[in-house]
Write a structure and sequence with these properties.
By secondary structure, this protein is of the alpha/beta class. 44% of the residues lie in helices and 12% in strands. An 8-stranded mixed beta sheet has the order 8-7-9-6-10-11-12-13, with helices on both faces. It is globular, with a radius of gyration of 35 Å.
């Protein structure tokens, strides 16, 4: 039984609705619009407050048809009902919809009840029909019989054999005197012919060995060279073994170690204020999918004489899926080549097809151009953050409230969590914020020492004498083998007592399938409740990014005992300087979580931290 059915325009005007209960469905429909329709998700179903909502778009008249019913019910006729009611409403009020006469009373109750009754009866009939597996004769494999494959292969082999015989016969007639026929009447070769063929083969192999020896002559080495062996490479700035005695040895005590950075280093002062936008260079050598589709269309034979050139330009008919299929396939392959995950590329193209199906082509607009422009708009919408992201403002707000702003970093092994944490720390102290780093990676050897080295360099760049005697960066660590959640809790308590502005929690790298480590990460986030949970991911990954983000978010939801678990709030995209224009990982990660890319790591220095330039990334992606 349907709880709600409504028809409204994309502008928000309700044309007609049916409601069988007194329950209010406003919040559920609004959630559907915000989370699915406006986000252009390829799915046509949405769950909210125990309801299952399904919708269908009419792109020609900009209408939305929505059905809502209880999730526990299994209604198999809803898809058919939506299609039938969509056609029924279009046909009945085509003139009113074409003239945009929306503010009138639509008498649609009888048509609605008839369509619903027919759909319910169809569903009952379908439920009584037992589902049977498709027989082999109905499958596509049955058309490829063994005999047909044998004949096809045999025909190809015989054709190749005949062609080879003709070539050999021509060579024999031009280079060698034709030997006397030694074949019998049944077509078999004689012994003289076999001997002659063997002699030719031996001569051919001998000539091949001679040519190979000429191409790669053997270099004879002197006895001294053979005994010398491989010599080590000498680097220009590497020095020699004699210089090892002059190296400055690091003291056993970390506090005595010195940094080579000074406050006069040129990078000091470059990160004040907001982070600069990322600049993406796109190569012009990459093919344009629009041009490729147009080339393919131009190769097709023309029909209809000279006026056929206007057939693909003038808006004479509505767009269908078959019209868009060539352009969508090119776009899908292009996105995958740009390192977008294959599943995400398929969903993006499906959402474009859903959005454009039924729309009328504008004058002098090609299908490929419309598809490309629509996909570009969708990519910009995906990468654009749905909420305000201003970390400096949030840090200052927390400082006014007398507490530190806490950020936690998580991700798989080797993606650059500690390195990019130090870049973010440099940006924060450049803006006069005192930072405490919590060393919660108690597993990886050298993790604490790495953070201590970064702390030493950062304090050398911003010494206490330049900040009123305050040490801008401190490290809170308890060594290895300890509970990470407990260390983070103690660090946050210490930061609050010592009036630190920001706490950066470094966690151990873990694979998304490691359940004990994922439970430990969930415990850390649940116990300490950080203000921001950032997932650190590489820009090099393709399909792996989808698996990582999905399982990290799923683990944070499953292993938390609260009804509202703290999931990933943002993404740090690292190693962006290694991918040229293969920027598809940004699309894959943002599409999965719906969370923005907050920081982009582009190098190895503290200033190599950028903000995502959405339009530049999309432009590079679509080149």
């Amino acid at each position: 039984m349907l709880d709600l059915f409504t028809i409204f325009t994309k502008g928000g005007i309700v044309l007609w609705y049916f409601q069988s209960t007194s329950q209010l469905f406003t919040s559920s429909v609004n959630a559907l619009i915000q989370n699915v329709i406006l986000q252009e998700r390829p799915t046509n179903t949405f769950e909210n407050n125990g309801l299952l909502l399904q919708y269908k778009l009419d792109n020609e008249f900009d209408l939305v048809f929505v059905v809502a019913y209880q999730k526990i019910l299994q209604l198999s006729y809803v898809d058919k009902f939506l299609n039938d009611i969509h056609l029924e409403f279009r046909d009945k009020y085509k003139n009113e919809l074409s003239n945009k006469r929306f503010f009138q009373e639509f008498q649609f109750s009888d048509s609605f009840n008839t369509a619903l009754q027919k759909a319910v009866e169809w569903g009952k009939i379908q439920s009584k029909i037992p589902k049977q597996m498709r027989t082999f004769d109905e499958s596509g494999k049955s058309k490829k019989t063994v005999s047909s494959m044998i004949e096809r292969k045999g025909e190809e082999k015989s054709a190749k054999r005949d062609k080879k015989k003709e070539v050999n016969f021509a060579k024999e007639n031009t280079t060698v005197e034709s030997p006397p026929s030694s074949t019998s009447q049944n077509g078999t070769f004689g012994e003289d012919t076999l001997a002659m063929n063997r002699a030719k083969f031996a001569q051919k192999m001998a000539n091949k060995k001679k040519s190979d020896s000429k191409k790669s002559p053997k270099v004879t080495k002197s006895p001294t060279q053979e005994k010398a062996g491989k010599k080590p490479r000498v680097w220009d700035l590497g020095g020699t073994n004699k210089d090892l005695g002059n190296l400055e040895r690091t003291s056993d005590r970390p506090e005595d170690a010195k940094s080579h950075f000074t406050p006069d280093t040129e990078i000091v002062g470059q990160m004040q204020g907001g982070i600069k936008d990322l600049e993406v260079e796109s190569s012009d050598d990459e093919y344009d999918s629009d041009q490729e589709v147009q080339k393919d269309e131009s190769k097709k034979p023309s029909k209809g004489g000279m006026f056929s050139i206007f057939k693909g330009l003038v808006g004479s008919k509505n767009l269908t899926t078959s019209d868009m299929q060539p352009a969508l396939e090119k776009m899908r392959d292009h996105l995958i080549a740009k390192n977008v995950a294959s599943d995400i590329a398929i969903k993006l193209c499906d959402s474009v097809a859903t959005k454009l199906e039924g729309k009328v082509l504008g004058t002098f607009d090609s299908v490929a151009t419309i598809v490309k422009n629509t996909l570009t708009d969708s990519l910009i919408q995906i990468l654009s953050p749905n909420r305000r992201v201003d970390i400096l403002r949030d840090c200052l707000e927390a400082k006014r409230n007398g507490r530190p702003f806490v950020m936690s970093f998580c991700g798989v092994n080797g993606v650059g969590k500690s390195t990019n944490l130090s870049k973010i720390c440099f940006w924060l102290i450049e803006n006069d914020l005192q930072v405490l780093i919590a060393a919660c990676d108690t597993f990886r050897a050298g993790a604490v020492e790495q953070l201590r080295t970064h702390m030493r360099h950062l304090n050398a760049l911003h010494p206490p004498e330049r900040h009123g005697g305050k040490q801008m960066v401190q490290l809170y660590e308890k060594g290895y083998g300890k509970d990470a959640a407990g260390i983070a809790m103690e660090a946050i308590k210490f930061a609050k007592e010592s009036k630190f502005d920001v706490v950066l929690i470094d966690t151990a790298g873990r694979m998304q399938d490691n359940e004990p480590l994922m439970r430990a990460l969930t415990k850390l986030i649940k116990v300490n409740e950080p203000d921001l949970v950032l997932f650190v991911g590489e820009a090099l990954v393709g399909n792996e990014a989808v698996d990582q983000l999905v399982k990290f978010n799923q683990a944070l939801a499953d292993y938390s005992s609260t009804s509202t678990p703290h999931l990933i709030d943002g993404i740090v995209l690292t190693k962006f300087d290694t991918i040229d224009d293969k920027v598809g990982a940004a699309i894959s990660m943002t599409y999965i979580t719906g969370q923005p890319i907050v920081f982009v790591g582009t190098g190895q220095t503290y200033t190599d931290l950028k903000a995502l330039n959405v339009r530049a990334v999309v432009h590079s992606l679509m080149k």
